[in-house]
Design a protein that fits this description.
Oligomer: single chain
Structural class: mainly beta
Number of domains: 4
Shape: globular
Strand content: 35-45%
Number of strands: 54
């Protein structure tokens, strides 16, 4: 059957504004709709692609130089572990990691067979790699559980001293949990109560500082109690020795990961900017840079002030939105030179600041499978305050919260992994695969099954790439918090609602969402294959200059792309849209402030045959073609450059 040209601009139903009315304005001066010939506007954060589109710069994404092959330094058997004996090997793995880290790093080797972990393991030294014999040969079974009685103190041990900095952490059975309380000697120290987004929370903590001044030094009963929706309670008690002068430096395995690679994080004062940090800047002027030196790692952060939240219509009640991590190359007075350009602005008016960070570096996990036995909100592998870390050839079966996850990470990489299902999918931040508070991280060749949201970016994720992945039974998400300049390319997404996903192929949270807030500029979807029950791409608003290029969207009901609330300046080019409902347009600009959108060279199968509907008029509408819904799926687009990420790696210095 011959192609039919979709109606041009003049023939589309806009829901026209009154004659002579001024068109809606963008909510701020746009920065990201750039042309290659606008040399004065291009910055080191921009790359002119082979198609003439100006892209974000992803040339420094993932582990610098690629994931290394780290020499073996120890065998877990040397520290008392034995495969297939069903005994707890957590202490052996922790001791091996600590010993290898103290010697400067190397791989802790686990042989073929099954090892068991009854407690979490935390790696805090650089250069430590946990390596199995392959994900089909080495298995870790994570068996940590809250005792059958329903409550226990994870820390401190019974009979130990408690100083001001001692962590006091209570764990309770999570199902139906509504409240946890901690008291010492009958004096209340801490209370946790369930909120809308508490998810499968099972732990809460305070420190000994909460008891100083309330009780004299000496022996006291430490009590924890959990309360439940059905009115039942559970409790535990231990005796501890309160000592107000005890400098507690005991390392405690982090309970939010079965295996956690954990850096120190923020270290030192917040150093306010003296001049705005602008997009593309590689030098920052501070009020004082005396505490910084070349080689320091820093984060730059723009607080979510009332001014900024009003500008972006952000109704979210919490969260972090504008953050990036960088290496200081040199210091000249109060000006620091950094190794990469800023991707977004960090204005002085919002109190933007720089702060030194101390990450864990060059750690990894390789060649094994992790299975979690208990339904506890614990991530299988967590990179937290981590730089240049990785997971490779890892399978996670039934994670408690996330399978492998980055939080406050930079230049990290997840490669050649399989993530299969999660215990808990009841909402509140669970069952995701992606990047959170991360920058310049890479996820490649990952396959997931039955997660809620995968692939995903959230909370200031910036410059990250997810590519060549297959994501079954979940939706793709820019889930929260002003994510910007991230790329999803060459991925397959099969979205359903049964696992807690929303049913859209791809979803970007809206500004009025009090739990997520809007997402930021120039996120890119390139050469992907998306199938969904609802709209292919749902954009909630305040999204500037997204690039939607050369994808196939197969949609059960709804538009191919749905945009609202100042979602503006997008480029939608070279896509194939298959709309099965017979009613929906290829693109729906649902509010009149969705201005500056360019819709060119797309193919529409089915739907209502129209390229664009809604009150907003696109800036360009050309060479789009429509055809009746076929019996068989039309082929995916074949862009001249299959991977814009690989093209940048090959052509950009």
């Amino acid at each position: 059957m011959r192609w039919m040209l979709v109606l041009g601009v003049a023939g589309l139903a806009w829901g026209r504004a009154a004659a002579g009315a001024s068109p809606p304005k963008r909510p701020w001066a746009p920065q990201y709709k750039l042309r290659p010939d606008e040399k004065q506007r291009l910055t080191p954060a921009d790359v002119v692609g082979p198609d003439g589109i100006v892209y974000p710069n992803w040339t420094r994404c993932g582990v610098p130089g690629g994931i290394p092959t780290v020499p073996a330094a120890a065998r877990i058997e040397d520290f008392g572990a034995r495969a297939d004996d069903a005994n707890d090997d957590a202490a052996a793995l922790q001791a091996a990691c600590r010993a290898v880290g103290a010697k400067g790093g190397g791989a802790v080797v686990l042989g073929p067979g099954t090892y068991c972990l009854d407690r979490p393991v935390t790696v805090r030294r650089d250069g430590v790699v946990i390596r199995g014999a392959g994900r089909d040969r080495t298995k870790l079974v994570f068996r940590y559980a809250v005792p059958a009685a329903g409550a226990a103190f994870y820390w401190p041990p019974a009979g130990s001293r408690v100083g001001p900095d001692t962590r006091i952490e209570l764990h309770c059975r999570p199902t139906g949990l509504t409240k946890m309380t901690v008291s010492l000697g009958g004096k209340p120290l801490h209370t946790w109560q369930r909120s809308t987004h508490s998810g499968n929370t099972f732990s809460t903590y305070t420190t000994g500082r909460a008891a100083i001044g309330k009780l004299p030094d000496g022996r006291h009963r430490l009590r924890g109690e959990g309360e439940y929706r059905d009115g039942s309670t559970t409790s535990c008690e231990i005796t501890v020795q309160l000592d107000s002068k005890f400098p507690d430096e005991r390392p405690i395995p982090a309970s939010h990961g079965a295996i956690t690679f954990q850096g120190l994080g923020a270290d030192g004062p917040k150093l306010p900017l003296a001049r705005d940090g602008k997009r593309g800047d590689t030098k920052l002027t501070l009020r004082s840079a005396k505490s910084l030196a070349a080689g320091d790692r820093i984060r730059i952060e723009g607080p979510a002030t009332p001014r900024w939240k009003a500008l972006t219509k952000n109704a979210c009640l919490w969260g972090l939105y504008r953050r990036y991590e960088l290496r200081v190359e040199r210091v000249e007075g109060d000006t620091i030179h950094v190794g990469q350009p800023l991707r977004i602005e960090f204005p002085v008016i919002d109190g933007s600041f720089v702060q030194k960070v101390v990450p864990i570096r060059r750690g990894g996990i390789e060649g094994l499978t992790i299975r979690q036995v208990e339904d506890l909100w614990i991530t299988a592998v967590l990179f937290e305050n981590a730089w240049e870390c990785w997971a490779r050839d890892v399978k996670v079966r039934m994670c408690g919260r996330f399978p492998v996850y980055g939080r406050a990470a930079k230049w990290c990489e997840v490669r050649d992994c399989v993530f299969d299902d999660a215990h808990f999918k009841g909402g509140g931040g669970t069952a995701y695969a992606g990047w959170d508070h991360c920058c310049d991280c890479l996820m490649e060749n990952v396959e997931t099954f039955k997660l809620r949201h995968a692939p995903l970016f959230q909370w200031a994720a910036s410059g990250c790439v997810i590519r060549k992945g297959v994501f079954h039974d979940s939706d793709a998400q820019w889930h929260a918090g002003w994510t910007n300049e991230n790329l999803i390319e060459q991925c397959v997404v099969r979205s359903v609602r049964g696992n807690g996903g929303y049913g859209y192929g791809m979803w970007a949270s809206p500004p009025e969402d009090k739990a997520h807030g809007p997402n930021g500029p120039r996120n890119v979807v390139y050469n992907c294959d998306i199938a969904s029950e609802r709209a292919g791409l749902w954009m909630g608003g305040m999204n500037e200059s997204w690039l939607i290029l050369h994808n196939r969207f197969v949609v059960g009901s709804g538009a191919g792309v749905y945009a609202r609330t100042a979602s503006f300046d997008h480029t939608i080019r070279g896509n194939v849209f298959v709309l099965k409902d017979g009613r929906s347009p290829m693109v729906q600009l649902a509010t009149d402030d969705c201005v500056g959108v360019e819709i060119e060279g797309n193919a529409l199968y089915g739907g209502n045959g129209q390229a664009c509907l809604g009150p907003a008029k696109p800036a360009k509408l050309s060479a789009n073609e429509a055809r009746p819904l076929p019996n068989d799926l039309p082929p995916r687009p074949q862009p001249a450059v299959p991977s814009i990420y690989e093209w940048q790696k090959a052509h950009v210095k």
